[in-house]
Amino acid sequence: MSAVAGHRLRAPRPSWAGTPRRLLSGWLEQAGLLFAITLEGFRKTWDVRRWWIEWIEQCWFIARVTTLPVMLIALPLGGTIALQVGQIVRQIGAESGTGATVVQALVTQVAPMAAALLISGAGGSAITSDIGSRRIRDELDAMEVMGINPVHRLVTPRLWAASTVGVMLCSLIILAGIAGGFFFNVIREGVTPGSYFDGATSLLQLSDLLITLFKAWVFGFIAAAVACWKGMTCRYGASGVGRAVNQSAVVAAMLVFAANYVLSTLAYSLFPPRI
Fold first, then answer.
1. Is this prediction's pTM over 0.85?
2. 131 has pLDDT over 90
């Protein structure tokens, strides 16, 4: 009786009690699904005969939707860097150093980040909507009934396609950014072309380019993994697919920035920049 009375007199728990724990468990569960889908898709990489055709189609599609935006972004981006840096270095009489600054910024940081954000925003959104549409039409369940693993069939080629296109877009951004910087620094500011390109190669090393291409590959892989994960776990209905598309772009951008910090720290530790 006393126990019952004590139970009755006990104040009820508020409705928000346990919410942080539920949120944490939900985040951990979603993170586990992301890693499980990514690792399962990566596990069947060796079976190239089953996914190389889909890989080519996805490479063409992602390149088609991202090439023009990359050009429209890279040209003014390189010009903006050259314009801002040129105004500063002109005051100290070091206009020839603008080329080194532009190329160093493009190669080490700007190019892989821009490629990853464009892949996650354009290609990743299309991947999420495609796989999400298959989910709400129960195509993924139908594939499992037929004995086809949807992760191996859909995720694996998209992971490799996004990473491959990311490396290509990174190279395109570097070339377009250098061209934009050349226009503003040489044509607008009057710096000689020899000084521009001599400064552009003075601070770069081969390791910088290799690390940049590796970062672009990793960022493309991350963007595709998040897009596939959100598409395969979206809620049913058109609103669920639309919400998954928005979330995939945001989550991919956050993970790309975090990965960029980690990889840049390791790169500067292993390969110190040239002074």
1. no
2. yes
